[in-house]
Design a protein that fits this description.
The protein is of the alpha+beta class. It has 3 helices and 8 strands. The strands form 3 sheets. The chain has a 3-stranded antiparallel sheet with strand order 1-2-3, with helices on one face.
Length: about 140
């Protein structure tokens, strides 16, 4: 059952059944998202801009938002992080993404990939996060 939290400018929608508990929300904006408190969302804890920015980082799309502006014709929640349509897990091979996506590297670099992208699933690639075919050399069974 989804829950809604509003500060009169923005409404944050939380879908608990979709949440993967990545902890990104509360690690980066504990003034708003604090799992030790009830309710766990304090929508008054930060500015609307900071809240929206943090919700946009939700990897599962469990957190979304909509603006409460009466001039808007829709109140459909925005779940910007959940735009990948399909990720294919290939037998004994990589993850395949068949749509435009953004790869966020550990060093903070962002890379936009268009078309098909193959991501390493075995952990042995010399070109991480991309697959270089080493899964064949190590006889990966995953």
């Amino acid at each position: 059952m989804e829950k809604k939290y509003t500060n009169n400018e923005v409404t944050v929608v939380w879908k608990p059944e979709q949440c993967i508990h990545s902890k990104i929300c509360w690690h980066n904006l504990k003034e708003v998202f604090d799992p030790t408190k009830r309710p766990w969302v304090n929508i008054q804890g930060a500015s609307t801009e900071r809240i929206i920015d943090q919700v946009r980082h939700c990897p599962s799309g469990a957190l979304s938002y909509y603006m409460n502006n009466a001039a808007e014709t829709t109140k459909d929640p925005v779940a910007e992080a959940a735009q990948i349509l399909k990720v294919e897990v290939t037998p004994r091979g990589p993850y395949i993404i068949n749509t435009e996506c953004v790869i966020l590297h550990a060093d903070g670099r962002e890379e936009v990939k268009k078309g098909t992208v193959a991501l390493c699933r075995c952990g042995s690639s010399n070109n991480k996060p991309y697959c270089d075919g080493r899964h064949n050399e190590i006889d990966f069974e995953g």
